[in-house]
Amino acid sequence: MSRVMVSQAPSLASEPAAAVSASIREDHRSRTALEDLPPTVTVPEAGRICGIGRNAAYRAAAAGQLPTIRIGRRLLVPTAQLLRMLGVEER
After folding, report:
1. Which residues span the domain enclosing 44?
2. CA-based diameter of the chain, in Å?
3. Could you tell me the CATH number of the domain that includes residue 50?
4. 8 A C-beta contact, residue 69 and residue 40
5. Which H/E stretch holds residue 78?
6. What average pLDDT does this structure show over 22-40?
């Protein structure tokens, strides 16, 4: 009988507070860099921008609540329409 070792992911408690704070700031910066978005994003990416999950984003797209275009088999969300829908001014 063989034994399987399971490694544990490091907890936030083991990291210094400054490292956790920097990680949160970096995540926040990446989420707020809306001007750096490409012309289209995937439905899951649009969901993250809107603060909803992947499945909820696909449901919103199917219901017409999320603007989408189909290119081949890909379902994409035009960034300009998404930002207008969210009330974000384009620069």
Report:
1. 37-91
2. 63
3. 1.10.10
4. yes
5. strand 74-78
6. 64
